[in-house]
Structure to design on (242 residues):
């Protein structure tokens, strides 16, 4: 492993293993403050303890710096799901929807880079370059491919996902969608009124598709913003009990 790979691995471990869990649990705490104020601290402590237990049991998945961080945030999400499920009366769909909401702002600031994602000159080329750099922060367990099937279209496909495999191991595949939620920040950051581009996610491994397909394409409509299969198809997965 060269020095650059080590530096990227350390940054990813810090981002996913420390920053994301802290901010995510901060969002969860806000909810607990309203629905279970007398148990707020105890529940947060229980989530942290359970997350450590899960991460220790799944240590074999932590094969590089980024995967160590990915395992930690995945374990925190799974532990939060288990802890909050009773507070949502055992309704898995509502619990996961809430956790998606809690995850969505966690990495909002790193995606507040309109100057990078919204430039008209060689816009798709710059988007592709940004994506190729960003994926270096992800575990080697991931499998990505990049395509330019036509001049006005860029695709990034995820063929294998660390978190999808992690949650499937725990018989909780739909909870993977919580990790999918922070990708919305990237898609929303692309403003068609500024860049002439719009983003879409048309398929997700977490919903049973063969890949996660992210696409950025040219548009003449300044109001034609992002569209996301996570929003339109999640409830079709029959996640509600009863």
């Amino acid at each position: 492993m060269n020095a650059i790979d080590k530096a990227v691995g350390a940054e990813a471990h810090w981002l996913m293993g420390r920053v994301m869990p802290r901010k995510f649990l901060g969002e969860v705490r806000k909810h607990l403050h309203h629905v279970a104020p007398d148990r707020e601290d105890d529940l947060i402590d229980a989530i942290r303890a359970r997350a450590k237990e899960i991460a220790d049991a799944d240590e074999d998945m932590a094969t590089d710096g980024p995967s160590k961080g990915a395992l930690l945030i995945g374990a925190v999400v799974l532990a939060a799901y288990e802890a909050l499920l009773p507070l949502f009366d055992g309704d898995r769909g509502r619990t996961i929807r809430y956790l998606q909401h809690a995850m969505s702002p966690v990495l909002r600031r790193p995606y507040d880079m309109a100057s990078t994602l919204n430039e008209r000159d060689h816009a798709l080329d710059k988007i592709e370059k940004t994506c190729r750099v960003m994926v270096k922060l992800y575990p080697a367990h991931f499998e990505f491919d990049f395509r330019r099937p036509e001049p006005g279209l860029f695709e990034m496909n995820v063929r294998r996902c660390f978190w999808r495999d992690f949650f499937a191991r725990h018989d909780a595949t739909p909870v993977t969608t919580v990790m999918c939620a922070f990708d919305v920040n990237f898609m929303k950051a692309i403003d068609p009124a500024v860049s002439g581009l719009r983003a879409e996610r048309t398929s997700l491994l977490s919903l049973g598709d063969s890949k996660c397909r992210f696409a950025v394409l040219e548009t003449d409509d300044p109001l034609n913003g992002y569209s996301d299969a996570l929003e339109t198809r999640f409830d079709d997965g029959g996640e509600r009990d009863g």
Observations:
- The beta strands are 143-150, 153-160, 197-203, 212-218, 227-228.
